[in-house]
Structures are given as C-alpha cells and as structure tokens.
Write a structure and sequence with these properties.
Length: about 210
C-alpha cells in the first residue's frame, strides 16, 4: 500500500482507500452484505483476479474487512465489512450523490449491475406516506432484478425479484435513474421506452412531488 507521506487525515484516509477499485469493493460489501470472492468478482466487472486478491488483503490489513469460513452447506469464505469499514457509508453516499451528474449519458462500454440501484434509491426515494401499507417496486433491466421495499417512512433495496410487486419498472437503467432523480417525469421516461406497470400511485408515494405525473 503506497502512502502520500503527509500528516493529514485526508491523506491518511486516501492511503487506505484511495487506490483504484478499493472503494468499489467497499461498495459491494455495503450493498450486498457478506460476499463470496465470486460475488465480489461479479460485482466488479473489469477487475483482474490478482488485483482483487491484492486489494482484499490490503483492506484486511487496514482493518476494513474481515473474512470468515461459512459452515456447510455453503462451505466457503465470506467477506464482511468491519465496523471501521461500515463507517465509510456516509462517504460513499456523498460520492454517489455527487457522481450522479456524470450518469446522464452512460459510455458505450459501461456495464451495470442491478444492485447498484441501492445508492440512487437511498438518495432520491422517500416514503411520503409512512402510515401507508408496505409496497414494493421491482426494477428489471438487462441485469438481475432488484426490489425496492417501501414502508414505515423508508425505502430499502434488496437483491432478487418480488413475489408480487406493486409496481414494475422495466427498461434501461439510465431511464430509471432519470425518473428517480427527477430529471424526467414518469410520462417522459415512458415516451422514451421505460415500461411502467402496476399501481402508478406507488410512484407518487416515493418520488419528489411533481415528478411522478
């Protein structure tokens, strides 16, 4: 692990998490919880196997992640964030919010994983009817489906499909992001190819006012 050699808290933090891929490894563990090595590799398209192994060892040495051997029938090594690693949550939230401005037009080779919706969902979606019944929104793109569960004033994201989603959004991830962020209305993203099916009132519950129409 290289060091800036500066007695400054920002420099010291970047000594630990400033290398390429490091914060994205933290992102995967923050969104998905405990991960196998293959889970991390799948969530980091483009990373070399040896580089991922190196970064994992560096993060373990820095006390940001830990490993444990899962019992049968899993019988594999699982990686977890430590308490110090989990403290990076507001850092990633801030970077994610700041970086949305660069997501308007994805590059041709940009890859996507469905669980990456977790950060924009936490930034932009809010349960404006905390006393209402729980509802779910399933997001279907070319990647694996994910579900946003809305209840009690919060909106949380999990991997996998919903048994009976109240609302389904199907299409390009940039259209879903444009809807969530308020850059486009529901009518506008529909005109551009996003399929919206189910109870449209769910959008009115979670999106900023004047966006869901």
């Amino acid at each position: 692990m290289r060091s800036y050699g500066q007695y400054c808290s920002i420099a010291k933090a970047l000594d630990v998490v400033g290398d390429r891929w490091t914060l994205l490894i933290i992102r995967e563990l923050m969104i998905r919880g405990a991960c196998r090595y293959t889970d991390l590799k799948n969530g980091l398209p483009g990373i070399a196997t040896n580089l991922l192994s190196d970064r994992i060892r560096e993060l373990e040495s820095a006390g940001l992640i830990r490993r444990e051997d899962a019992p049968p029938p899993v019988a594999t090594t699982l990686f977890h964030l430590t308490e110090a690693g989990a403290e990076l949550q507001p850092v990633l939230d801030a970077i994610g919010r700041w970086g949305v401005r660069y997501m308007i037009a994805p590059a041709d080779r940009d890859q996507f994983r469905g669980h990456w919706f977790a950060f924009p969902a936490s930034i932009f979606l809010h349960d404006r009817d905390p006393g209402g019944p729980p509802v779910s929104i399933e997001l279907r793109t070319a990647s694996d489906p994910v579900v946003i569960e809305v209840s009690g004033g919060s909106a949380t994201t999990r991997l996998g499909p919903a048994a009976a989603p109240d609302l389904v959004l199907r299409g390009e991830p940039q259209l879903i992001l444009a809807l969530f962020s308020g850059h486009l209305t529901a009518a506008e993203v529909t005109d551009r190819g996003l399929e919206i099916s189910g109870d449209a009132r769910v959008l009115q519950r979670v999106l900023p006012q004047s966006v869901a129409t």
